[in-house]
Amino acid sequence: MIIRVFYLFLIAACWPSSSIFAQNDTISSACDMPSKKCLSWVTEELGNVKPNSIQWYSLKLMQLDSLMTIKEFTLLKHQLSIFNDNLKLPPMFSIHLNIYQAKLYLIDGNEVRAKTLLTRSLENLQQVNQSFYSPMRIISIANLMHSLKQYDQSLALLERIDREFQNSRDLYLKLELYGNLGHVHKFLKNYDKAITYYKKSLKCAIELGVEQQVAVLHEHVGNMYKATGQPELAELSFINALAHAKKDARDSTINHAKIILAFFYIQQMELDKAKVLATEIDASKIEPHEQQEWLAINTALKADNQ
């Protein structure tokens, strides 16, 4: 429920209307958090509401957030392109469009353009939060700081939310909080702490039953085990990531998990295992941010065949 209210408040913050509260009951429980399930429901529901209405913008944010969360970056780019020439968007909606675009720039390696948008979005979100305080927005602010490599500032905000909401039963809040704490500690090279927080986030994802997030968090844990010289535990985590990716049943999730596991086997010089996985990977569906690992896999396997 808190996430559905959060999206509505995002729009209410820039589009005052008492009717916003009446709209709350129309938001399906499918969108208690960004997910594949939420994306399916929102995509259908968008055709049933008036375009550019309060509810339409709320639904659109859910759609974009779900696309980002489940890493459907090509579809996200397409959706963002729809708004390229629209200068009359609600301010808060525009802020979040900038955040999504900035994250895509980072994925594509365009750090200069990403930094410009991230800096602007950070300033805007901080201003909004002074009037409309939200723990989820604080986490978003911390995430932007992290993207701008302001790790200490990001950590301070996240630890504050952890203290203030330590007794919260909101699993999605905790999933995001602990996941972001894991990210920050990873970049600060506090790998043991990163593992601890990723596992806490993983526990929340398992309770929420969101297989894509479970797969992603197993991957994060595996990367930290790899960074701390624990290849056996890393392998187990990557295998678990693939198992849950298959439960998610989306080609992009499965493909990604196979690439990560195959790349791990290449690094461990277990080429036979890597070769088996490589034959199962659909090369036509590899995302730009996966190309580096895919190239390394193919290069190693070709060298082994010569």
TrEMBL record:
| PROSITE patterns recorded | TPR (PS50005)
Top-level taxon: Bacteria
TPR repeat copies, ranges = 175-208
- Signal peptide extent: 1-22
Q: SMART domains from the xrefs?
A: TPR
Q: Which UniProt keywords apply?
A: Signal, TPR repeat
Entry protein name: Uncharacterized protein
Please give the organism: Paraglaciecola psychrophila 170
